[in-house]
Write a sequence for this structure.
């Protein structure tokens, strides 16, 4: 089955600096890669996702890059702000049409991001 | 819309007790899942359902049962609680399965003593 490894486990940055979180996956057939943000005591929420037919996707200060050959993908946050402090989870899934059934989402262990002001 | 709701928010059980964690969604989503979150281990899938009457096991199903009699509700049953089941439990729903956004509930913090 799929295995997702996430690094680093904790990351401290100064406000305004960039933060990068990296994930590797094992199943070369995985083709959907979401990132979730979980603030302290709250539920995880999707912040960005990428599919395997795209190499990079941006949304304001957040970007995700995907290297299918190396089987890794990364989350980039630029101009970090204190409200970016949270736990970030990457995940991977294999989406196959028409059968969605059985293509489970596997999460990484999470990265605690602290933005110091 | 309330989205995904879970009850209770907190629960303390003694070893061997049973209980049901409730999950409901009002978005008419076919797909629903249960995850447990433990420190340093991310979110691990317990059971999931692709529609009323259809359920399947995830990564860590032992000690848990589920059923799906309606589109809205997906309860998780702990048969005989063990300390290893101390965790935060999240229910999630999606309109189109694991290849799309998962909408999580607020979570239930369970402690088994």
């Amino acid at each position: 089955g799929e295995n997702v490894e996430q690094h680093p486990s904790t990351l401290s940055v100064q406000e305004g600096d960039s933060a990068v979180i990296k994930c590797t996956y094992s199943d070369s057939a995985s083709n959907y890669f979401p990132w979730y943000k979980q603030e302290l005591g709250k539920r995880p929420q999707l912040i960005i996702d990428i599919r395997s037919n795209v190499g990079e996707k941006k949304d304001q200060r957040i970007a995700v890059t995907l290297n299918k050959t190396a089987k890794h993908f990364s989350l980039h946050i630029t101009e970090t702000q204190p409200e970016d402090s949270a736990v970030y989870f990457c995940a991977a899934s294999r989406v196959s049409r028409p059968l969605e059934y059985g293509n489970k989402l596997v999460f990484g262990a999470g990265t605690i991001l602290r933005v110091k002001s | 819309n309330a989205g995904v709701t879970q009850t209770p928010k907190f629960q303390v059980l003694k070893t061997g007790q049973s209980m049901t964690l409730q999950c409901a969604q009002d978005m008419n989503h076919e797909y629903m899942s249960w995850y447990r979150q433990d420190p340093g281990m991310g979110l691990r899938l317990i059971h999931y359902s692709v529609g009323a009457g259809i359920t399947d096991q995830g990564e860590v199903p032992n000690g848990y049962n589920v059923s799906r009699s309606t589109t809205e509700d997906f309860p998780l049953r702990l048969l005989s609680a063990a300390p290893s089941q101390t965790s935060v439990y999240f229910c999630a729903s999606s309109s189109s399965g694991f290849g799309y956004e998962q909408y999580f509930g607020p979570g239930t913090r369970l402690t088994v003593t």
